[in-house]
Amino acid sequence: MTTTITELDIAGRVAGLAARVDGDATLRRRGRVLNATCQLSVGGEHFLLRIADGRVIETRAGPFATPSADFAIIADAAIWHRLLAPEPPPGDHDILAFVKRGELRLVGDLHPFMSHLLYWKVLLAHLRETAR
Q: Average per-residue pLDDT in the chain?
């Protein structure tokens, strides 16, 4: 069964991300010195996440004529569906596993991503949760 972006409801998940991060004191502490803008590309949909001092202070949905982001996380909707599954199987739970297999791309200045890797992994895990 092929899952579409709509079924994944990535826009709804991204929209609720700021509240989820605000509710996670450990994540905010880990990102307390992180200031970056990340573009998420989910198939044909694009989102900008602006992080300041570990808080998601802005989420914007595209399309963008000229997006300004430090780095981008790019994958097809099917890959995001596997990554954001409530209980992903082994090998599909980690963003770097997808990068290693060439199914997901990280482009741009990866210093904010790699220097705060655990922060980004937990932030993306918050996208797994459905709206409460």
A: 89
User: Are 74 and 104 within 8 A, CB to CB?
Assistant: yes
Architecture in CATH for domain 5-126? 2-Layer Sandwich (3.30)
Q: Are 45 and 7 in contact (CB under 8 A)?
A: no
Domain ranges for the chain, please list them.
5-126
As given in the structure block, the two tokens for residue 20 are 């989820």
User: How far is the C-alpha of 121 from the C-alpha of 124, rounded, in Å?
Assistant: 5
Quickly list H helices, 1-132.
5-8, 10-15, 17-22, 25-30, 77-83, 95-100, 111-114, 117-126
Q: How far is CA 20 from CA 2, 54, 55, 78, 114, in A?
A: 28, 12, 10, 24, 22
The string of pLDDT tens digits covering residues 41-70 is 998 899 999 999 999 999 999 888 888 999
Spatial CA neighbour of 118 closest among 32, 27, 35 = 27
pTM metric for this prediction: 0.87
Distance CA 21, CA 52 (A): 12
